[in-house]
Amino acid sequence: MSTARQTRPADGTGVRSAAGARAHAEATVRACWDSEGRTPHQQDMIDLSLVVSELVTNAILHGGGLAGFEVRTTGEGVRISVHDHSDVIPEAAGGTGELPAVHRGSGYGWPLVIRLARDIDVRRRPGGGKTVSVLVPLRDAPA
Q: Are 134 and 113 in contact (CB under 8 A)?
């Protein structure tokens, strides 16, 4: 069984941490948008950073380590896919985005993802582990 805190890079990206994933996602978005002469809305980039941090941190802490990280821009925003080594689908994956009634120091991350992202999909990978895929909407910055 994998250790809970693997630090090997995610396949193809060199991403090892939430910070690395945030930087990779931002660079991917900015490169695409810059090539189109566009600037993403700053609040949407903050939302992207929060979602990426939560998904990657969950993979590292609860998913047996980061197995892959993908960023793909779309017409609606940016699709983030995080692969981990655990087959367990979290109970919160079908949640409503409601915050926990009692604060125990955690439990706010997944509701945050639900509130900031769309088209959330969690599925097991054929070779083991799972993928969490979300769409973070992006708008143009105000003129």
A: yes
